[in-house]
# Entry
Amino acid sequence: MTLSRDWRGEDSIFHIEKFRKEFEELWSGGDEDCVVLPLPAAIESEIVKSYKQLREPDEADVLEIWNKAQGGDFTVDPEHHIPRLNLPSYLVYDTGEFSHQGEAVLAWKESKRRGILEMATGSGKTITSMICATLLQNEVGPILIVVSAPYRPLMEQWRVEIGEFGILPVNLSAVGGRANRSREIRQGARRLRKGLSDAEVFIVSNDTLCTAEFIDEISQFDGAKLLIADECHNLGAAIFTSNPPELFQYRLGLSATPVRQYDSEGTQALIDYFGDICFTFTLEQAIGKCLTEYDYHVHFVELNQAEMELWSELTAKISSQAWKIKSGVSDPYLDNLLRQRRLVLETASDKLVRLQHLLDNQNARDIRYTLIYATDKDPDQLNEVNDILFNQGVMYRQLTYEETNSSEKTNKILKSFQAGEIQILTAKRVLDEGVNIPQIKLAFILASTTVKRQWVQRRGRLLRKCSAIGKTHAVIHDFVVLPPGTSETNSNILDNDAKKLVRSELERVWEFARLSRNGPEDGGPYEAVEHLQNLANEIHLDES
# Structure
């Protein structure tokens, strides 16, 4: 113990600052021979406890405490005493309905462990990537793994699924603060250097991945490093491509839709960083194999006269700016016009009337495990949907960015839904990517964008198998907007604006219809496609 008083002069001030810096370095994990744990975690792991034996603690006791502190609440393998990734005993990935995972693992290895796996939502991208990581660890030895994901629910889902491989990863978004993140990374790197661990896994948001602070901390470890980027198409934005983290020797991108629509430069930047798309497993290949089949029902909704006039007005303004679209010129004014025009379709007033009618005709038992997608461009639509459900006495909860900011609240909502206590989830785009809710078997899509990625993600979300509830197939209800007076009769006298409206819906309807099991039935979605083709004067659609 030493005592210094800063009012006694420069020497005392010097000693005080020296001890303060030493403590801050120790507390932030900068001391190679010290492990810092939050007191509640230490107590829970019985690292801090009353010592009731008569003898003094010996070296074996200290080693036991050290191993507990290094592994946190992870149970160390009694034979090896070193945490490492291991393939779960139940996992079969080279034969059966998930044999595509083995093919993907081999393709990534043959691409010198840099590449993108283009795999349909629900086909097991997370498990495939962890198989890749485990086999890489077995080959190169101790490895630091970073998993990046765009949303908090997705990050939490990764944490749980990685645990199946014998490692409890650190979700850096949950530790709070730069100092805590730095401490976690330094302690993990130290365990790798000292041979106390064969694998350390950190889960980060895309925003954190791109920060100089994070890159600097990770670069301090000079061993093998792997980056796994979930939904990697999101990293095609300039914030990542302008300064990508080059410190990772091994790189694995995951996405059902890695090609960025309307952004060839962003797509190329992703390929330049991660490597080529080395394996593809499409939604069409997955349906009937690792995904369930589905029925698709089209419900035509007509714009009223005021909505159609607003659509035409916005279309005229957009047409005057068309040269910017062709030249790839970014313009906030044009972007706002496009957003407003899409909003007209997504919030068409007749959608809510049609939704209420469909819900009125649903069997109360069949309404369980239902998802309703509303627009994210106008909060009023989601509120009105919630009002309809409330008035009908339906048990529902909404799941938006507000709820997903709390992992505890999100988990509570999802568990209640999966147990059938909550009948319906209402959501915006927050469930488009990654979140695994296999119980969903019925969906009402009130709003869709023109981005194909969203269509692929949403179908994959609905088609996951779930034997626990006896799910045999999924059912999708899509609300498709048309000009006034055209939902039942064909017309060859539509003006160009009206035809543009029809064409904007036609591509999505065909994409959903072509893989549905009820496509050719009487009154099925193929008839809806034909009606849209006649309205738009389209002769055929690509069936590939």
The domain at 293-536 is CATH 3.40.50.300 (Rossmann fold). Residues 292 and 472 are 7 Å apart (CA to CA). The longest strand covers residues 293-302.
